[in-house]
Specification:
single chain, about 425 residues, alpha+beta, Anthranilate synthase, 2 domains, 13-stranded mixed beta sheet, 10-stranded antiparallel beta sheet, 8 helices, about 25% helix
Amino acid sequence: MTTDPDGVPTQGAAPRLVARTVALEPGVADSLLDLLPADSPVTWLRRGEGLVGWGEAAVVRTRGAERFADADTWWSEVVARAVVRDEVGLPGTGLVAFGSFAFADAPGDSVLVVPAVLVGRRGDRAWVTTVGHDLDHLPSTLHPAEPAACPGQVTYADGALDGEQWMSAVADAVARIEQGEVEKVVLARDLVATTERPVDVRWPLRRLATSYPTTWTFHVDGLLGATPEMLVRRERGLVTSRVLAGTIRRTGDDRRDAELAGALARSSKDLEEHEYAVRSVADALGPHCSSMNVPDAPFVLHLPNVMHLASDVAGVVADPSAASSLRLAESLHPSAAVGGTPTADAVAVIGEVEKMDRGRYAGPVGWIDAGGDGEWGIALRSAAVSGHTVRLFAGCGIVAGSDPAAELAESQAKLVPMRDALGS
């Protein structure tokens, strides 16, 4: 493994790994999080299904504009050198790597990690994959892990900008939109939490998975969250992407929420924002697909704290060997849902007015298997954890006519999942 001038590991020689996947007896993996220890945990869960892993059999860190390509090349080399015994043959079995990628070319680093142990569940089938350097010495037993401890009292402080400063940034973005610089720009803000005790990421992960079962609960290398947005899934030639843009906060009153959902579906501002996002996804996937289906109108996705306009874009990959799920994620990033429209101009505006290093927030997060299939979400409703410090993120799509106070309220609603997950 080589390092950059700052000593950060970068792409080097791919290791030779041995992986074995075997089926598990019914009941062993009914609760995947119960099996997850504190040793470098990785997760990708929705409705109790998905993947959890721990330990590190191999890891690579990449940076800059070629971060996706470098990681994809490294993964291809790892797969080519690996010996795999897969007795299950489902998506997520065999050799699998988890990844989390920086939003911007700079600053920030990205990571792709192969867990030493991975447990998965899909429907009524479950499996365990063990990875090492010697097939004869791979572990094969599973035990419930010690539960995570509560991080204790949590205090919050403003991040890069306080509320007033962030509303000024929104007003600046609206002015630029009205002047014709961009059509839409997505502005994010951060909130810094300090906890009484170091955070065991399994604590917030369990609370997120319980409270938001329809989202994808994830953790890779200190970045965790519950994202409602599937950037891209590639499975046996079929590509799908869920686009979310246009948001309204729920009240908790079913009748009032139904009225708000109807208003959201008719909102010209939100429909315009959503159209930009869908168009950016369709344009990015088009060159890789032999056919595509783009919905004519969105539906309203109901989450416990907010409602979104949502569309599912689907296509058939023309050449799977040239378009792994990771490379598809690269082609989609950043979409209008997290950057803006036109993308390059909007990202430039973000760099000027946001005053914040996003790190891996709003970047692709997910997993890839040896065949190139995988699932990559957008790291939203998320936080970066380091010891006692947790940096929470939220973003809003700004278009002509956006109201700074309303956008601040929307961002506060989007911070609720992570704030609740850290509490006792």
